[in-house]
Queue: 3 jobs
Job 1
Amino acid sequence: MGARKIKSENMVDLLVLDEEWVGLIIEAKNMGMQLEEVRSFLEKIVKDDGNKG
């Protein structure tokens, strides 16, 4: 999965988003999820989001 650009009105939104995602990834790791499981989950969300609209 390549890097994706996120449109935002200001950098604060991006920083908050990054902190939230980092926290969620750490929580998943602490729950015992493997990196590939997290990656698959995120890819599914991106794919599903792309199919809306």
Job 2
Amino acid sequence: MIEELSEVVENGEEDEKALLAIALQAIRQKRERNSSLLSGMLGLQGRFIDEKTYQFIVPITPFMYNSLGIVHGGMTATILDSVMGSMVNRSLPQGQYAVTTDLKTNYIRGAKTGNLRAEATILHRGRTLAVVTGSIYDDRDRLIAHGTGTFMVLGSPQD
């Protein structure tokens, strides 16, 4: 494996070298923040922009491209699921967590370069289910995708 890595570092194309850098970023983020490797591969770092809206700024990288050179639809859906799930999980009391039970994604246009801005707000949160809406925009503030997600609330506040 070390030989293969060295060969890519020395002779690889720029997108191959970028992928190695992204993998190292994911490992670093997992170790530092105990986040998932996928979260690190996408460079997810979230924040509340107001009381009801959670946001990710996601750099577009070669890892995200499909064969047409645009962000893969599965990546777009993953980012929507992640920002909506983060919004729900940050709203729950300690000991509870939420998992996706349904995800609906509407793709509006493709994205190629720059950053994606993903935002989510909770439409409804009950005792066992939460319904969330999310949107992804490009650097020019154009809507890339919109979706809704349903999340099941698990665990006990007493845990």
Job 3
Amino acid sequence: MVENATGTGDMERASQASRTARMLNIIGIVVGVIFLIIVIVIVVVGRNTK
């Protein structure tokens, strides 16, 4: 999307698409880290209950 907008000279749309992509990447990383922490806690708690 950014490349198409940049190629046509629409820098505002390219900038917006770039900001959206950056935000989605950050959200994905945060969700992934939270999921990883939850899995680690479940594994640790599961080992301690046996």
